[in-house]
Amino acid sequence: MAELARARPKPTPETQHFWDGTKAGELRLQRCDGCAHVYFPPRPFCPHCGGRAVSILSASGRASLYSYVINHRPAAPGFTAPYAIAVVELEEGPRMMSNIIDCPQTPEALQLDMKLEVAFERLDDAITLPVFRPAKG
To answer: What pLDDT sits at residue 75?
Structure first.
């Protein structure tokens, strides 16, 4: 029996810049031109002040582990248990849900506030996902 494929996000006109960025190996966020609030996920207005003048910025890719849960069973299609479902806090402020790679998926290894860096996992020609690994150095 063939293994089921991992679910793929569906880019929209509002999120296409984000997916174009991940494909290019860049994590793109948005910043409100009015109040300077940096936010994620992408949307055409600022969630802080409602302003519609927003700019795209290239994030540093640095983050810290804010929260996580280790999923042991049943494994979702495209994943091998155990795997961490994590919330990372980006250096620029927003939080995003992702996965942690290149690290044992145990409470001993996944320490809250540990420093992380973005990596990119290519799923196909259209979608590359941002994932995070422990920062080097």
So the answer is: 73
